[in-house]
Amino acid sequence: MHPSIKNASKKRSLNNIRILISISIMLSILNPVSIVSAASDPTASVSPESPLSMYVGDTSDISISIGNCSNCSNVTSLNLTLSFNHSILEFIGANTSNNVTGNISNIIYNDSVYIELNDMDELNATNLTPVIDISFKANKSGNTSIYFNNTQLTANSVSYPISSLDYKIEIIDNMNRAPEFVDVPPQTIKQNKNLQFLINATDPDEDDLNYSVISELPEGSTFDNSARLFNWTPSTDQEGPYYVNFSVSDGKCYVYMEVPITVEEASTDDEKTASSGGGGGGSQTTGEAYENIEFKDYALKPVVKDIETVFSFGIEDNSIISVSFTTALNGGQTKTVVEILKGTSTLVSGAAPGNVYKNMNIWVGDGKFLPELMSDAKVVFKVEKSWIDANDVDPDSIKLLRYSGNAWEQLPTSLTGGNDVYYYYVTRTPGFSPFAIASVEEGITNVEASEGETESVQGDDDVKNSVDDMVTPENNIATQNERSTGTTVLILVLLGVVFIGLLGYNKREYCEQCYGNLRAQFGNPDGKRYRRSKK
Question: GO molecular function of the protein, one example (predicted)?
Answer without folding.
Answer: carbohydrate binding
